[in-house]
Amino acid sequence: MKSVKAIIILSFLIFFSGKHLAQTDTVKVEKKKTVSTYRRARTASIMSAVLPGAGQVYNKKYWKVPIIYAGLGGFGYLFYVNQERFSYYSKNLKAEYDDDASTINETGYSGTQLQTLKADYRKTRDLGIIGCAVFYALNILDANVDAHLTTFDVSDDLSLQIKPYSNFYSFNNNSGIQNGIAIHLNFK
C-alpha cells in the first residue's frame, strides 16, 4: 500500500514537473525572440545615429540611403547658402552704420533694406538647421521602426478590399439606385 502511494506521488511529481519545464522552455524561447528583436532595433538606431543611413543598410533597406542623404544634403545646402548671404548682408549693414571711412556698403541698399535682407536670410538659414535636425531624427526613427517590423507577419490571412457598391431598391412605390463604397475585411 505504501509503495502504491509512493508510485502515485512520484508519478504525479514527474508529470507536473515535466510539464512545468516544457512551459518554461517555451517562455524562454518567446522571450529570446523578443529580446533579439529589441536588440536589433537598438543596434539599427545606434548605427543610424552614428552614421545616417547605416541603420537602413543594417535593415537591408538600401533604397532609403539616397533619400536620407538627399534630404540632409538639401537642408545642409540651404543652411550654407543662407549663412553666406546672412554674413554678407551683416557685414554691409555694419559698414553702413559705422563711422569708419575704410568700410563701405558694397550692395547699394539702405540700412533698413539691409536689416530686412539680413532677417530674411537668418530665417531661411534657421529653417535649414531645423530641417537637418528633423531629417536626422527621422533617419534614426525609421531605422528603429523598420527593425521592429522585420518580425511583423504580412501574410494573406488578413486582407482589406475596397470596392464600389451599387444596389437597386424599391420601397413604397419609390425606386432608385444606391451607390457607395464597400469595405470588406477578411480574416482567414
Helix count from the secondary structure assignment:
4
Our measurement of the CA-to-CA distance between the termini, rounded to an integer number of angstroms, reads 55 Å
Neighbour order of strands in the largest sheet: 1-2
Total number of strands: 2
CA gyration radius, whole angstroms: 34 Å
Taken as a percent bin, the fraction of beta residues is 5-15%
Low-confidence stretches: none
Number of domains: 2
Plain-language structure description:
This protein has two domains: 1-151, no CATH class; 158-187, no CATH class. The mean pLDDT is 83. With 188 residues, the chain is of the alpha+beta class. Strand 1 and strand 2 (174-187) form a beta hairpin. The chain is flat. It has a two-stranded antiparallel sheet. The protein contains four helices and two strands, in the order H-H-H-H-E-E.
Features:
single chain; 188 residues; alpha+beta; two-stranded antiparallel ribbon; 4 helices; 67% helix
What is the gist of this entry?
With 188 residues, the protein is α+β, with helices and mostly antiparallel strands. The chain folds into two domains: 151 residues, no CATH class; 30 residues, no CATH class.
Helices and strands in order:
Elements: H1 2-50, H2 54-58, H3 64-97, H4 111-148, E1 158-171, E2 174-187
Antiparallel strand pairs: 1-2
